[in-house]
């Protein structure tokens, strides 16, 4: 089975994070967040 990657983009405060969380809960997934200032993927950087 191939993994699927979904990209959610939109303007500030449009509900992107809420949508991503809902999709992860429903389908069991992982969120990778990337913006112009940071890139994070479930790692402990502290």
Overall pLDDT: 80
What coarse outline follows from CA principal-axis ratios? globular
Instruction: Give the uncertain stretches in residue-range form.
Output: none
Question: How many β-strands, per DSSP?
Answer: 2
Q: What fraction of residues sit in β-strands?
A: 5-15%
Provide a count of the helices: 1
Largest sheet, if any? 2 strands, antiparallel
Structural class designation: alpha+beta
Proportion of helical residues: 25-40%
Give the N-to-C terminal Cα separation: 34 Å
How many structural domains does the protein architecture include? 1
Could you state the order of secondary-structure elements as H and E? HEE
Radius of gyration: 12 Å
Strand order of the largest sheet: 1-2
């Amino acid at each position: 089975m191939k993994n699927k990657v979904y990209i959610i983009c939109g303007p500030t405060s449009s509900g992107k994070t809420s949508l991503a969380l809902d999709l992860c809960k429903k389908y069991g997934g992982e969120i990778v967040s990337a913006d112009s200032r940071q890139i994070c993927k479930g790692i402990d950087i502290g």
